[in-house]
């Protein structure tokens, strides 16, 4: 009787720990860190350890890992391509689109550092501004006029913001997939 109770407690703690680690992964994505990969690795480790042999919550199957892998890749594509597509849609050059990608990464880092007093929002603002500046500079380097370069930069900033928001949504969906996988 006591052994069964401790097994149940251990299983509940493992599940809660996995869900907590994955929630931290979602928060990491909001800070422009690779939280989707943390979610995938943590859940993959849990599935690999096969805790279902311990006490019976083994519905966290490999189908969950497959879905998480697909979503992690989708999140990366959404995040990094959105700024470039926003710039491209505004008529920016290829150099501007590359600048939007690199500027978005640099801006996210700088936004986190210098706008630390507004967590998450500061990172998102930094990523968007960085993508815009990177696109603007790329267009100037390509020889475009300032007015056109500003339009491309605006498109890149808007695209990067929506891309970052999209990746946060993907990370939230990943958390829900794990929750469903644990509960089924």
From TrEMBL:
The keyword 4Fe-4S does not apply. The keyword Transmembrane helix applies. Keywords: Membrane, Transmembrane, Transmembrane helix. It holds the Pfam family DUF456. Coiled coil: none annotated. InterPro entries: DUF456 (IPR007403). The chain crosses the membrane at residues 6-28, 35-51, 63-85, 97-118, 124-143, 164-183. This is DUF456 domain-containing protein. It comes from Poriferisphaera corsica. The lineage of its organism: Bacteria, Pseudomonadati, Planctomycetota, Phycisphaerae, Phycisphaerales.
